[in-house]
Design brief:
The protein is α/β, with parallel strands linked by helices and 228 residues long. The chain contains eight helices and twelve strands. It is elongated. It binds calcium ion.
């Protein structure tokens, strides 16, 4: 489950429909554009988490779309989906800043696993966060130490990692499954019930009133959010 927004830039409606159906089933929110200009406008207004881009588009070629997009939204990952299979296109697309390339026809499952891989890579990049402070706390992520008023606080390894993941994604809701995948590096490694227990423990450590948390919020029907 994920609440991530994916923008499809694709002129063929039947392909958009298939992608939309399947990706919505995977838990993604889908935005659609039938040409590059519309795609750029939606990207600017909606700031999607990922773009799936066809290269052969009316009015604006996919390459020009990438160039324009990089000016306004340089950090949105792009997966190119195209019938053109020549190696030269692949290299050019990746050179322009696309994150992956998949050739039509393709299996939806393959696309979904590429999407997940891109999201994982992006989360990893963000893991280079070095330190973070809030209220009386200072967290040294490199050393794995949590301080409260300059005193080291004992914290269980997995709870430290959960806190880190929540802070990396601060002010954004994350699902229990997102946490399991990010912290245990495997889907279904532990049950989501266990996540709730770890969250209870974390709240005892950092909240003034764990029953009325100010930082680690519960997001109804989704999961949790570190709010700051
Ligand atoms: Ca096309």
């Amino acid at each position: 489950m994920s609440q991530k927004k994916i923008l499809l830039v694709e002129d063929e409606k039947n392909i958009r429909d298939i992608l939309k159906d399947n990706l919505e089933y995977e838990g993604y929110t889908i935005l659609e554009a039938e040409d590059g200009l519309k795609g750029l406008e939606i990207a600017k207004n909606e700031n999607p988490d990922l773009i799936i881009l066809d290269l052969m588009l009316p009015q604006m070629h996919g390459y020009d779309f990438i160039k324009q997009l990089k000016k306004t939204n340089p950090t949105i990952p792009i997966i190119i989906v195209s019938a053109k299979s020549e190696e030269i296109d692949k290299i050019k697309g990746l050179d322009l800043g696309a994150d992956d390339y998949i050739t039509k026809p393709f299996q939806i499952r393959e696309l979904v696993s590429r999407i997940k891989a891109v999201f994982r890579r992006y989360n990893k990049t963000n893991e280079y966060i070095q330190n973070f402070s809030f209220k009386d706390f200072y967290i040294d992520f490199d050393k794995g130490i949590l301080y409260k008023n300059n005193e080291k606080i004992d914290i269980y390894f997995y709870e430290f990692e959960i806190l880190k993941y929540l802070i990396i994604n601060k002010n954004k809701p994350v699902t229990r499954n997102d946490i399991v995948e990010a912290v245990w590096k495997a889907e279904g490694a532990i049950s989501s019930r266990n996540i709730d227990t770890h969250i209870v423990n974390l709240r005892k450590l950092i909240e003034d009133d764990p029953a009325d948390p100010k930082y680690i919020k519960t997001v109804f029907r989704i999961g949790y959010k570190f709010e700051i």
